[in-house]
Amino acid sequence: MINLHQWRTGEYGDGVKKGESFTLDQGSGRDYVVPVNRRLRRLTPVECERLQGFPDNWTNGISDSQRYKCLGNAVTVNVIEAIVEEMI
Q1: Which of left, alpha, beta for 19 (phi over 0: left; psi -120 to 50: alpha)?
Q2: Does pTM surpass 0.70?
Q3: Most CB atoms closer than 10 Å: which of 8, 21, 45, 77?
């Protein structure tokens, strides 16, 4: 998964480097794409929910742009669970 800006500017060449993984940042979900057969595909709101550790359609009922915004501002569930487990 890469940021659309990085793809357009050629920062990551063909979008894939061995041994490297990309991370989400504060950009909107609409800016993230997945290279598939040398073409780009945007992440869906459900895919963003899964990346953040939420159940499918957790943010259903609001517009996709608001779903992306909510998920981008959320704290990843799996990370919080791991922190709490270490504290206990």
Answers
A1: left
A2: no
A3: 45
C-alpha of 65 from chain center: 14
Please state the domain extents for the chain. 2-87
Closest C-alpha among 40, 55, 53 to residue 79: 53
Who's near 48: CB < 8 A, 6+ residues apart? 29, 32, 67, 68, 71, 72
pLDDT digits (tens, 9 = 90+) for 3-60: 555 555 555 555 555 554 445 455 555 556 666 777 777 889 999 999 888 999 999 9
Q: Which of 5, 35, 8, 9 is nearest to 20 (CA)?
A: 35
Q: What tokens were used for 16?
A: 């894939």
